[in-house]
Design brief:
alpha/beta, Rossmann fold, Alpha-Beta Plaits, four-stranded antiparallel beta sheet, binds ribulose-5-phosphate
Length: 237
């Protein structure tokens, strides 16, 4: 497994903070932003898994929880939460999730864990979207991380051909089925200088369920853990 290390000085000694430690820091920090009576949406991925482990501390503030994946639902239940359906709660007050890449406008690539469709639905249904990442996820231009696209299985070749025509190199995610019973194409070679435009273009290909560009549904707030602590930022306007 590849572990990214950063090195910094404190009290004249070198300290190394690995990516996992940063994920723990940011997951704990976001607890402070949970208000009273939250109807909370919970994303997916390793950073969110850490958050879920801390969430029982905030139980008295959370009125309802909605989950973006089977895995997060299982973890929430294991931590003593009853998980509600989105259709029964309507609007979420806060949605918290990680990202694979995030730019200064708080537009993201998501879907590394394959939960992008439900994540996008929850992001769209929430009043406030807080993204939690370690600082390795911050980029100027999206696209170094292969863009996940959830596709209805029978449309695999048709969608792949269209993505190639657009300049991408789609690769079928092996041995993987989404929670919705679909496949994922991970698309390499897209440098995404206009995220909103590309998000809409890809969504217009018949057979695409969702793509992992979160520009229409960008985050409202970013918590990013680095060597010197957790930074909070809002989208560039
Ligand atoms: C899952 C996601 C995750 O938010 C993204 O992959 C980041 O995951 P991690 O916290 O493990 O780095 O979009 O579909």
């Amino acid at each position: 497994m590849l572990v990214s290390y950063s090195v910094y000085y404190k009290n004249n000694i070198f300290l190394k903070m690995d990516q996992n430690t940063k994920k723990h820091r940011v997951a704990e920090s976001v607890l402070d932003l949970i208000g009273n009576d939250e109807i909370l949406g919970i994303g997916s991925g390793s950073t969110v898994n850490i958050l879920i482990d801390h969430l029982p501390k905030m139980k008295n503030k959370i009125s309802k929880v909605v989950s973006s994946s089977i895995k997060s639902t299982e973890l929430l239940k294991a931590n003593g939460f009853e998980v509600s359906e989105l259709k029964s709660v309507g609007k979420l007050s806060t949605y918290i999730d990680g990202a694979d890449e995030i730019n200064g406008y708080l537009q993201m690539i998501k879907g590394g864990g394959g939960a992008l469709t439900r994540e996008k639905i929850l992001a769209h249904s929430s009043k406030r979207f807080i993204c939690i990442v370690d600082d390795s996820k911050k980029v100027n231009i999206l696209g170094n991380y292969p863009l996940p696209i959830e596709v209805i299985p029978l449309a695999q070749s048709a969608v792949a051909l269209e993505l190639i025509r657009m300049g991408g190199r789609p690769v079928l995610r092996q041995n993987f089925t989404t929670d919705n019973g679909n496949i994922i194409l991970d698309v390499h070679n897209f440098m995404i200088s206009e995220p909103l435009k590309l998000e809409k273009e890809i969504n217009n290909i018949p057979g695409v369920v969702t793509n992992g560009i979160f520009a229409l549904n960008h985050a409202d707030m970013l918590l990013s853990a680095g060597d010197n602590g957790v930074d909070i930022s809002e989208p560039i306007v």
